[in-house]
Design a protein that fits this description.
The complex is a heterodimer. Chain A contains 12 helices and 7 strands. By secondary structure, chain A is α/β, with parallel strands linked by helices. In chain A, the strands form 2 sheets. Chain A has a 5-stranded parallel beta sheet with strand order 1-2-3-7-6, with helices on both faces. The radius of gyration of chain A is 21 Å and the shape is globular. In chain B, the strands form 3 sheets. Chain B has a 7-stranded mixed beta sheet, sandwiched between helices. In chain B, strands 9-11-10-13-14 form a 5-stranded mixed beta sheet, with helices on both faces. Classes of the chains: A alpha/beta, B alpha/beta.
Chain lengths: 382, 327
Amino acid sequence: MAVTEPSAKAKSGADSDASPAALGADLGLSGDELLEMYRLVALARAVDERMWILNRAGRIPFVISGQGHEGAQVGITWALEKGKDWIAPFYRSIATCLTFGMSPRDIMTAQYATASDPSSGGRQMPGHYGSHEHNLVSVSSPVATQLLHAVGLALAAKIRKTGQVALTIMGEGSSNQGDVHEGLNFAAIHKLPFIFIVENNGYAISVPLARQVAGESVANRAEGYGIPGVTVDGSDVLACYAAARDAVARARAGDGPTLIEAKVTRLTGHSSDDQQTKYRSEEELTSEKSLDPVPKFRQQLVDAGVLTPDAEERIDAAIKESVHDATEYAEAQPDPHPSTAMKWVYAEDWPSETPPPWGLGEATGDPAGAAEAAEAIDESAH
Amino acid sequence: MALKTFIEAIRDGLREEMTRDENVIILGEDVGKKGGVFLVTDGLWDEFGDDRVIDTPLTESQIIGTSIGAAIGGLRPVAEIQFADFIHPAFNQLVSEAARLRYRSNNGYSAPMVVRAPYGGGVHGALYHSQSVEAFYTHVPGLKVVIPSTPSDAKGLLRSCIRDDDPVLFFEHKKMYRSVRGNVPDGEYTVPLGKAQVTHPGTQVTVIAYGLMAHYALEAADRVADDGISVEVVDLRTLRPLDKETVLDSVRKTGKCLVVYEDNRFGGYGAEVAAIVAEEAFDYLDGPVTRIAGPDVPGVPYNHVLEDWFMVNPEKIADGIRKLAAY
């Protein structure tokens, strides 16, 4: 497996002639930071794989996945300041959310739609993550709407002089929406501290790039707005970090937005309700596996002597424990009660906003036996 | 007290809130140096500068979507949509995003913002400069919808909207901007959201209206007084959350209810009011709940004869009152 593409190598500065210990040094990344980035990439994959097992085992009705996108997500998110900057993510942003502070429990309770799910309290479908605590804007289902929210956050940051950067992410299919044009135009006019990430996996559900994007490059569109458009190998974690780091520096310096198109692969169907073999060939699916960021980053770190057998064992064990814990925790969490279903339509309750004739009901959730089920699933996953 | 036009009261409300809170910003088309096509924001760009009075491109979805993000980021945006007719490209941002943000995040997020837009006909605006769009938004839980009818209410309600923690649509009837004058209290008063007002007490028929129709309802009440009919006029002021109590109290007293709105009759906001009255005050009713509303054509026609035919006016309301009173 190739360690890096030549073009990406130049961007990441991962020079094969340099001593292995120097990996990431030119980017200011320490060995510990590289290991933490690897942990997040691998953790996101492990959480994601667990979600599919739970779905196939009938425990959760729906999965939408980030497999194949994790390298780009961790590399890019790493360039932002946690707890300060803003991200308006999308439904594949599991690694983004984990990197920005959400926990595997936070992700897993969203799959089970528990009352304690911090994204929505069980109100939204899985994949619609969000956390005010971690500056991750709540995800909705209409695509690309979030770009304008990030632009608004960048406007607020500029006016209030907070020094924050706002970043949004979506797929290349979503990037065709009108909101993208309207938002990029506005952000560029006002030189807002805004970064637009397109995770281009080549498919909008079933429609391939050639049928979605004229010219087959989203990054090229940046030129029309007078902003830089960067294309980066999305399976190269450090190249993604480097591109995002440059964009953050531009944004903080008041030089305006950047568009980064990260070329990734979608290793799963669009969702658990999609069968991608209907529109993608076996050959294509096999060859796309070479773009998987997880083994690629791992090999890069092993070759550089950063990921030692000891370190890998420690990280793997911690991930396994973390996924086990998140699953068990989420399985045991209660459903939201209908008595809460009319809360938070508005900030306050209004007497004229009345419950339906059937009232606010009784809880129907039955967490009995949940812990045993979690145990069984956990076993099957090992 | 000072005598002000409707538009002056709105402008004063904006200026005073911007002075009070530096997080209040205005964004919209032509709102800057020009002061808006109706001059609602006239002078505010001079006073508050580029950062706080922002001329946007012709991008309604962006105006609303950016306002949502800015609100999350700590600002209090007051977005202007140049004509309510042009708000439709922002429907997704309003309905899918602003309205649902608090609910879908289980109170993790909210979008405290105001969307102002001139609405309504009777000004030779034809199909695309005359629309009443309130029903699209009153239908949506999570949005508040306010339509003031007096300068005093406009200023006091606008203050409340800007200070409110949820998204509010604030529709201003454009025919009233310079034709309606009224006394506006001095000082930093507010008018609470969700409170209707009885603007004309009466005993025999309740007329429920808002915006320009609240004025026409008062005129109609005067006309039928000559016929010996006593009308109570309720000006809703806030359409959602609706002040059901004031509406139902009045109908329980008079036993008859006429709902007036300028929008197309079918599925209009007044239809919901009529349904609530029918469901919750049935035992008190002494006649059918009836409506006087705009005809069901896709827009207000331009030609003045056709426009006059379309528009609800005091005489059409008075006829409706007479018929209901005689029931």
